[in-house]
Amino acid sequence: MTAHLAPSEPVIAATNLAAGYPGHPVWSAATFSVRQGEFVAVLGPNGAGKSTLLRVLLGLLPPLAGDIRVLGEAPRRGNPHIGYVPQGRTLDAGAAVRGTDLVGFGIDGHHWGVRLPGSQRAHAATVTAALESVGALAYASRRVSQMSGGERQRLLLAQALVGNPKLLLLDEPLANLDVRNESAMVDVIADVGRSRGIAVMLVAHDLNPLARVIDRVCYVAGGGVATGAPDEIVSGPVLSKLYGAPIEVLSDSRGRRFVVGLDQEIAHPHGGH
Amino acid sequence: MFSWNLFSDLNQMLSYQFMVNAFEVGGIVAVVAGVVGYFVILRRTAFAAHALSHIGFAGAAGGVLLSWTPILGLIITCVTAGGVIGALGQRVRERDTVIGIVLAFALGLGVLFLYLYSGGDAGLVISILFGQIVGVTSDQVVQTLAIGVGTLLLIAVMYRPLLFASVDEDVAEARGVPVRALSIAFMMTVGLAVAVAVQVVGVLLIFALVVTPAAIAERLCRSPGHALFAGIAIALASTWIGLTVAYYTGDPVSFWIVSLSTGTYAIVRVISWFVTRRSSLRAGRLAADSGLGSVTEG
To answer: Which of B156, B171, B223 minimises the CB distance to A101?
Structure first.
């Protein structure tokens, strides 16, 4: 399947990449790379193209221009080395599906036919290990519909991890979590990523809950993408240039940063993802 | 006729070949409907399944007009319409509107075909609309068995990716599951299941076998496997008990099948309402005792 990456080879390498829909690029001229085991926060306003970026990396959306390599090859759907958690959807409220079933999809959900009785035990062991690694074992035998948003996010993370990915793509995993669950979730993701050397791209609205764990920021705004150290990117001059509008970054006494600008000026005209 | 000696009653009832045929065909259809129904509920396509049966009505009537057997016309139209509905996908906003419009048109066509065939033979119309399980021949039993086994095999082949895509289409797609092709293949399979189920309960009462048992099972069970088997068991029980009761009372079979499954659904809903209410009351008391204002979730 995927060639083994040389230690120095980036997990993601984008050169002059443009994405969106024909005639409507959401962003363009993006050149960036993500190293192995790196934790990258993908930030930017609504509709700037953060989810579009993930869709390109997953091979669900062909790029409009430029070159993109993911794990040493062109993006392709069904790459088993990528774990993906899409933006918080409401999983069917009444479905008779347990947490363990949900995690099991990550192992063999894409295989045809039914699971053979002989592989049942190994399957259950793999599911249990993944649940343990995200601290979700205690409630995983309940119906998914009876779980809180935080519990479900952990299960989806376990599902993404169960195939031993080299790259995790998480779309707004912190949305709709309260502060306590948010920081617990950030810790789990950072721990798993670090201990297993998994590169993480995490789409978020707010840098602050992530500031203590991330290596770099990938800022998507104003039709462009800027990547670098958090201090370097989340600064007035860089964001003003990206947005093409005056942006200020304010810091409070605890080092939290707040991006301040005119919302109507930073909204991207094309909308979309 | 009914003697309270259940064994001899059963023996007496099954001494008629038409009752044996009815039990056999009803059993096959119940199993198929239970299995397909689980996914119909999971994918929230109950309305589409209902519409398929109405579209099938036009097919059956058209088939009769061309002097085919009604089942052939049913299968062709149900499977074709299933493919089209599946291609519309889960997310199309006007999906239900489009289905509703086609459904109404199909009923109109069906009425025309029946009029052209017989000048409005009420007996034929009623048998297509409400089922004719006690008129099934032994040949039809074999035919139903073949179609039923085919339907179950199709579901077995699609089982894991279909379950994955039904619960979480986005991740399934990213993992390489062909979600659109599956959606089409599944709705065509529903078309096949509906076509055979129509023989038992008719076009109008298709919910009784495809939707209601699976909806009950979904409330009772936690895991997909259990829900599947519970759905089959409930569909089988309503069909066979319905047949037996109708045999002794002389009422229409469809009426009893529908009443049994709907009654079970109502009872399950009432019980689960009580259970949820009691457990939330208890949780509320616990929270009050520990001095917390509200229940926190972890």
So the answer is: B223
- Minimal C-alpha gap between A121 and chain B (Å): 16
pLDDT band at B287 (very low <50, low <70, confident <90, very high): low
Domain count, chain B: 1
CATH of the domain at A62: 3.40.50.300
Q: What's the CATH code of the domain at B75?
A: 1.10.3470
ipTM rounded to 2 decimals: 0.87
- Cβ under 8 Å to B: A residues 17-76: 58, 60
Is residue A115 less than 8 Å (CB to CB) from chain B?
Answer: yes
What total number of domains does chain A contain? 1
Closest to A91 (Cα-Cα) out of B91, B172, B214, B167: B167
What domain range includes position A29? 12-266
Helices (H), chain B: 6-13, 17-42, 46-65, 70-88, 95-118, 122-130, 138-167, 169-174, 179-201, 207-210, 212-220, 224-249, 253-289
| Whether A86 and B170 lie within 8 Å, measured CB to CB | yes
Residues of B in contact with A78 (CB under 8 A): 174-177
Angle between helices A179-196 and A149-161 (to 10 degrees): 10
Tens digits of residue pLDDT in B172-189 = 999 999 999 999 999 999
User: Is residue A235 assigned to a domain?
Assistant: yes
Q: Which domain holds residue B175?
A: 16-289
Q: What is the pTM of this model?
A: 0.88
Cβ of A112 within 8 Å of Cβ of B227? The answer is no
